[in-house]
Amino acid sequence: MNSVKNNTTISSKIGLSATSFGLLVPICYSLFLQILTGFPQPSYWLEIDADEVFIRFSEEIFDYPFWLQDLSHFPLFFVFSWVWLRYLGPFNFEFRNPKSLLALFICLGYAILNEFSQAFIPMRFPSLGDTVMNLFGSITGIGVHAWYCSRFVTRKTLL
Questions:
Q1: Who contacts 18 (Cβ-Cβ below 8 Å, separation ≥6)?
Q2: Which of 62, 83, 128, 144 has the fewest beta carbons closer than 10 A?
Q3: Is residue 137 within 8 Å of residue 78, measured between CB atoms?
């Protein structure tokens, strides 16, 4: 039995999803992240006599220690960077590449603007610790995605 050897590139659904539908995932996650990190405290909802759903949701968000709230920004922004890079394609650390610059602008810019937007939300305030965790999560997400793509997505194999 003769086997034919062809050079092919392994592609992955995690590596790249540059379709119209693929853009929906990072946009929806960005909206989810903005709602989650920009939701006012329960006392605000009580003050304006809001529906019980808003009060209960706010209580659930703020019902764990402050230090854990800060740490939760890391995985949220790690996933944020991952889903955007999944759409934009592999990050290659060549800063002349427009896609790499766009990825940096989106991931790091949103990490900063998300925290800054809390200055305009009642009973919320921007925090340097949250900003650092946002940036650290985004940078780690970019780095891990770049490593993953260089290791698994564009590797040549013989079939």
A1: 87, 88, 89
A2: 128
A3: yes
Is the per-residue pLDDT at 49 higher than 50?
yes
Q: What is the pLDDT of residue 154?
A: 54
- Rounded Cα distance between 17 and 101, Å, is 18
| Helices and strands: H and E segment counts in the chain | 6, 2
Q: Computed over its alpha carbons, how large is the radius of gyration of the chain? A: 20
For residue 12, pLDDT over 80 is answered with no
| 101/113 Cα distance (integer angstroms) | 17
Residue 155's pLDDT band, with cuts at 50, 70 and 90, is: low
Q: How far is the C-alpha of 32 from the C-alpha of 78, rounded, in Å?
A: 14
